[in-house]
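Retro notes, item 3 of 5
We never archived the inputs for the nicotinamide-adenine-dinucleotide complex last cycle. Fixing that now. Sequence and ligand:
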Amino acid sequence: MDLGLEGLRVLITAGASGIGLHTARAFAAEGARVHICDIDEAAISAFRADNPDIGASLCDVADRDQVQALFDTALESLGGLDCLINNAGISGATAPVEQMDPADWDRCIAVTLTSQFNCTRLAVEPLKASANPSIINLSSAAGKFGFQFRSAYSAAKWGIVGFTKTIARELGPFGIRCNTILPGLVEGDRLTRVIAAKADALGKTYSEAETDFLAHASIKEMIDPRQLADMMLFLASPRGRTISGQAISIDADLQTLA
Ligand code: NAD
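Structure as it came back at the time:
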């Protein structure tokens, strides 16, 4: 299927590894022009070496001055913007709410939720000038279920759903569609860390905690990050032009989080 993504100008936050990296490569493979940012200097260097055709900036998306500098660089290098992918998000602390360090709460909300506001507010004007504008926000299955010991992360991910549905209504009249993706258990280093932390918090083995996670999915399989990228390609393509305001789960039909 030709998705018509040749030349699409895409900015992806936290793109030097994980889901963002798979997504950046998937858009570039379709002929899109891509710029990523990341907070990890070593990861940015490795990314630049491996992906010389994709722009990359060092940026903490929780810092508004750094986000302004990112947009200055990315908009100039891309020559405008057609698609913003707010992908950055951190797991935050795994702890009962009364034991959670307030600094951990603040940082998780800042990186996972407020970063999407930081980027979106600067994306709106350039997107209004695009013929095919869209915003895709990464939420999580933690944005539709309670997730014990992960109150900051879950609150941020529920917040993203509300943020997305609201900006979809505000920006729809300008033709800008806004959607959020709620991934379930995605293969990769991050999930390994999350399962290990949950095992520790509950006094279980890693394998017991992993079985607990999958027990609540109708399809007993982790999500391949390329499936998330495929959905984002479609949403950003002209074929997705009437899909907006949607919270789309890609989670093997999870019924709850362990
Ligand atoms: P990850 O933990 O692998 O991190 C990806 C990148 O984010 C890293 O390169 C890291 O340096 C960068 N990063 C961290 N803080 C940043 C900041 N302040 N500014 C800029 N970059 C920063 O993440 P991932 O697993 O690829 O997840 C991507 C998104 O998908 C997140 O929003 C996450 O919450 C969401 N998600 C992931 C899963 C999963 O199982 N992996 C499940 C549901 C939702």
